[in-house]
Amino acid sequence: MGENWALGRLGAYANIWEPRLSAQTTTLDAQSSAISLIPTASEMEARPPTGLDRRRWIKMEVVSVLEINDDVVGIQVSVPGGGKVELPVTSHIMIRGRDPQTSKNVVRSFTPIIPDQVECPGIMYLVIKCYADGRMSRYIRTLREGGEIEIKGPVRSLKYFKGKYQRIVLIGGGSGITPLWQVAEAIIKDPEDETRICLIYQNRFEKDILMRSELDEMAAQHPKKIRVLYMLSKPPEGWPGGKGRLDRAVLQSQLPPAELPGSVIMICGPPGMIDSLAGPMDEETRVRDGGLLHQMGFSGEQIHVFE
Ligand SMILES: Cc1cc2nc3c(=O)[nH]c(=O)nc-3n(C[C@H](O)[C@H](O)[C@H](O)COP(=O)(O)OP(=O)(O)OC[C@H]3O[C@@H](n4cnc5c(N)ncnc54)[C@H](O)[C@@H]3O)c2cc1C
């Protein structure tokens, strides 16, 4: 079953999955499993020192806290060392904080973003969505300019390199968009990286869509490389994007066929969405199985969950 069949099936969106002009690695190659998930010294050396440490928590100064909207804050953190804070693609940092409601420590992952227009050495930029019932969210709400925050990292759960995949499907929910944005941005910025991207971003309301102008601009400027589908479970009247939840029918209309080599699906979002797509995690083996994507024929190797 070849690419042509896929094109027929994918209809209007087929241009993204068209056969590529140059050959790239088409399978999840054997070397990838042997590759260290920790950014290598040379990868980190290629960038100015970040002052981050993946083994221990470092206290850093909160330089500013900006209310982006009702439930999203932009936080600038001063990172010792003074270099531009740019993490290797697919890596993130961890924040440790104390939930003011339970007084218990909570640790969560966050992906710093690199705003295009500002280049302030030694500053890490975080965009954080705060959930009313969220333990880390409640801690984030307590942060004030001049205060401290504990950060560890970078951490990486998957190694990405140009040519590893032909097609990447990024499925995000709520605040899970930032790691997916990081992957998309790295591919878009590299003119030699011909990977095609389909980003499906699920939210409840239109106002919940994070980084929308950046995503729209990316899709408008690189229509052959990326397309974006916003799904809303509570869409406004006349909403042109996807409506409802990510079910089998939506996935079938958007994803390349599971048998097509060189495809991977990366997911980051709320636990319910991850369980439904990638299946619940077996506590012993730490492997997810039995989700919608498995039922559609995708193997565990083709599904990567940021968590
Ligand atoms: C690799 C990685 C990078 C991330 N980067 C960022 C980032 O840059 N900015 C950011 O804001 N978040 C990011 N997240 C999500 C973040 O780690 C937390 O999951 C999120 O802040 C909620 O934590 P909490 O303790 O406040 O909520 P919890 O106490 O864990 O959950 C509270 C409620 O929020 C819901 N919820 C939790 N996560 C989500 C979600 N993603 N979408 C919708 N509902 C959710 C839960 O279902 C629950 O109802 C990232 C996650 C990963 C795995």
How does this model look, in words?
This protein is α/β, with parallel strands linked by helices and about 300 residues long. It has 2 domains: about 5-35 and about 155-305, Rossmann fold (3-Layer(aba) Sandwich), CATH 3.40.50; about 40-155, Elongation Factor Tu (Ef-tu), domain 3, CATH 2.40.30. Helices cover about 25% and strands about 25% of the residues. It has 10 helices and 12 strands. Strand 8 (about 195-205), helix 7 (about 210-220) and strand 9 (about 225-230) form a beta-alpha-beta unit. The radius of gyration is 19 Å and the shape is globular. The model is unreliable at about 1-35 and about 45-50 (pLDDT under 50). Bound molecules: flavin-adenine dinucleotide (FAD). Flavin-adenine dinucleotide binds near residues 92, 128, 136, 175 and 271.
What labels describe this entry?
27% strand; EC 1.6.2.2; binds flavin-adenine dinucleotide; alpha/beta; 307 residues; FAD; NADH-cytochrome b5 reductase; Elongation Factor Tu (Ef-tu), domain 3; Riboflavin_synthase-like_b-brl; six-stranded parallel β-sheet; disordered N terminus; 2 domains; cytochrome-b5 reductase activity, acting on NADH
